[in-house]
Amino acid sequence: FKTPSPAPVSLKTSKAITIILRREVTQSLPHTLKGSWHTDKIGQTSLRDGTITPTLDLHGDGTVSGSTVCNTIKGRYTATGQTIAFSAIASTKMACADSTVTQRERAFLHSLETVKNWEISSQGEILTLSNQAKEPLLVLHRQSHLPLK
C-alpha cells in the first residue's frame, strides 16, 4: 500500500488526520502452504461451534507445529506439486478434559496421517487437505496475523 501523493502530517494540529492508502500491485504472489492455519472441518464435522480448534503452522523449512487443542504437535511435511505428506509427527500426551475434544484430537491426528493432497482457495484463505481419492479430510482457514519462523 502507498499514498497516491505525499502526505505531510503536522503533529501540532488537533484536527483529525486522514491518510488514504491504495493497494499497489506489482505482481500477483502465489498462495503458499506456509502459514498458520485453524481447522474449520474434520471430515464432514464442522468445528465452527465457538470452541478452540486444532491448528497447524506450516513453516518454509518443511517443519510443522501446532495444537490438537489438548496437546502440541511437531513434525515434518513434504509438499510436491499438489501432493503433501506429514511425517514424524510427535505429540505431547496430555489428557483432554472432554470426550468430544478427545475424539476431535484423534480424528485430526488420523487425518494428518492419511493426507495425500492439498488445495488452496483462489483467495489463499482456505486450505483443504484431502486423501488419495481427493475427499476432504481437513478444511482450515489462514491466520495470517500469527508470526512464523
Give a quick summary of the entry.
The chain has 1 helix and 9 strands, in the order E-E-E-E-E-E-H-E-E-E. The protein has 149 residues and is mainly β.
Protein architecture, described:
This protein has about 150 residues and is mainly β. Helix content is about 10%, strand content about 35%. It has 1 helix and 9 strands; from the N terminus they run ββββββαβββ. The protein has one helix at about 100-115; strands spanning about 35-40, 45, 55-60, 65, 70-80, 85-90, 115-120, 125-130, 135-140. Strands 1, 2, 3, 4, 5, 6, 7, 8 and 9 form a 9-stranded antiparallel β-sheet that branches. The longest helix has 16 residues, at about 100-115. The radius of gyration is 20 Å and the shape is extended. The two termini are about 25 Å apart. Mean pLDDT is about 85; it is low at about 25-30.
Enumerate the spans where pLDDT stays under 50 for 5 or more consecutive residues. Answer: 25-29
Whole-angstrom Rg: 20 Å
Cα shape:
extended
Largest sheet: 9 strands, antiparallel
Mean pLDDT: 85
What is the percent of helical residues?
10-25%
The sequence of SSEs as H and E is EEEEEEHEEE
Total helical segments: 1
Number of strands: 9
Q: Structural class given helices, strands, pairing?
A: mainly beta
SS strand fraction: 35-45%
Oligomer: single chain
Distance between the termini: 24 Å
Write the layout of secondary structure elements.
Elements: E1 35-42, E2 45-46, E3 55-58, E4 63-67, E5 72-80, E6 83-91, H1 99-114, E7 117-120, E8 126-130, E9 136-142
Antiparallel strand pairs: 1-2, 1-3, 1-9, 3-4, 4-5, 5-6, 7-8, 8-9
